[in-house]
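Database export, one record per block. Field names are fixed; values are copied verbatim from the stored entry.
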Amino acid sequence: MPVATPDQYAEMFDRAKAGGFAYPAFNVSSSQTINAVLQGLTEAGSDGILQVTTGGADYFAGHTVKGRATGAIAMAQYVREVAKNYPITVGVHTDHCPKDALPGFVLPLVEASEERVKAGGEPLFNSHMWDGSAVPLDENIEIAADLLPRMKNIHAILEIEVGVVGGEEDGVAHEGSNDALYTTVADVTKAVEVLGLGDKGRYIAALTFGNVHGVYKPGGVKLRPELLGEIQEGIAAHFGTGAKPLDLVFHGGSGSTDEEIALAVANGVVKMNIDTDTQYAFTRSIAGYMFSNYDGVLKIDGEVGNKKQYDPRAWGKVAESAMAARVAEATRQLGSFGKSQS
């Protein structure tokens, strides 16, 4: 199936919220990882989202050049072409974009989509994240308010972050007090007062409840997914809406228990980012392959090795299938398994 149209993408989030599940959003950095996500989603019968960070876009462009907007465009175009061969629907998203990266990452991509839409086409990306967690809240909201109408005009969705996800992802690091890792009702109220609840353009919100990017053992981070429910109730009461007025995003979920994930989804999470676990699944399988085929991938003791084993396609297929299995596992955790709308 082709990449989701703007209407289909919006419907994905509506279906998730109504059905009590969430879509996994996988960070990709190569054609191999894109293929692995598409394989895994297909095997799970689930729709999903492929997303790229600033660092991932840099890598797509070629690690010796500076061209992250070019890399992101290449990623989106590749997904749009190869996704036609898979019986699922996927969205394409740009992940964390801090303030200093806006001019070289998200803004050129929005401009590219504006040209496509002006010519009668669809936006290049279905959604973009503005990560204002490192700037004061008022500035975070002000920049989001500037971006939102442009997103609305290209029929794309904005993702914002209110609060701070700890740890580091692709060079975007946050250090500070533990209090900053928990979003407050007051913070979200201030954001909604400016951004509205969909009338000014659709957005999804990454609220923080102790989340940390990167690797940690179960129990190593104090997650409070019940906080999301408290914020939903506070916003509903303040603005007089129905239950769970916010569409939420779960960042920094590696090491989370199934129970923590389920509670977050029950409280309105419709998108969960996954990166660390799929990176490990991909690379661990390559390490295993190399150890198991040591004398085939290396020319040792005057031998010539085994071309069929050191052909990058041989171990690449192993890596893609291993990552695909982790992709499918994520759909089971989030409840999207078997729910493709295609």
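Remark 1: The mean pLDDT is 93.
Remark 2: The beta strands are 23-27, 48-52, 90-94, 127-130, 157-162, 167-169, 172-174, 203-207, 248-250, 269-274.
End of record.
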